[in-house]
Amino acid sequence: MKDHKILPFYMSYPLPIAFEDDRDMVKDLEYLQQMYPMGAKKLLAEVNKALSILDYEGSMIYDQYPDRFMLYKMGKDILESLRKNPTKKKEDEQLAKLLEWDGIDELILVILFFELLKRRHQNNGGYLKF
């Protein structure tokens, strides 16, 4: 009869490996964000400004289930601030054209959700620590 080595459950799925997967995901997301078109990069900068205000311990962005309506309102507020404060620089012509597009509010929400996901995994070490 063969002796089988049996591993305890906690040794068969070590936690540090799960956290490395989260770090790899964040690195990939940051790399892909560098390839955004110029207008989307400007939107990303505005989203980062808005999220940096809410980036503190106990904030609603770190809730297990963030409030959908608050996130939608944050997206609308970002869009309104961009439309109220247009810049006159030549490089922002792409952003001005983008702001006239009908689907700009949805694009801002997608960027907001991805940035929120990145911050939640970057700051808390992954979904296991929420």
String of helices and strands: HHHHHH
Count of distinct structural domains: 1
Sheet/helix structural class: mainly alpha
The termini sit apart by: 46 Å
User: Could you name the ranges where pLDDT drops below 50 across 5 or more consecutive residues?
Assistant: 125-130
Taking all Cα atoms into account, the compactness measure Rg is 20 Å
Rounded mean pLDDT score: 80
Shape: elongated
Task: Assess the beta-strand content as a share of residues.
Answer: under 5%
Please report the number of helical segments.
6
The largest sheet, given as strand count, sense and whether it forms a barrel, is:
none
How many individual β-strands? Answer: 0
* Fraction of residues in H or I helices: 55-70%
Please describe what this structure looks like.
This protein is mainly alpha-helical. It has one domain (17-129). 66% of the residues lie in helices and 0% in strands. It has 6 helices and no strands. The chain has helices spanning 9-12, 15-34, 38-53, 68-84, 93-100, 104-124. It is elongated and about 75 Å long. The N and C termini lie far apart (46 Å). The model is unreliable at 125-130 (pLDDT under 50).
Q: In brief, what are we looking at here?
A:
The protein has helices at residues 9-12, 15-34, 38-53, 68-84, 93-100, 104-124. With 130 residues, the protein is mainly α. The protein is elongated.
How are the SSEs ordered, and which strands pair?
Elements (H helix, E strand, L loop, with lengths): L8 H4 L2 H20 L3 H16 L14 H17 L8 H8 L3 H21 L6
Helix pairs in contact: 2-6, 3-5, 3-6, 4-6
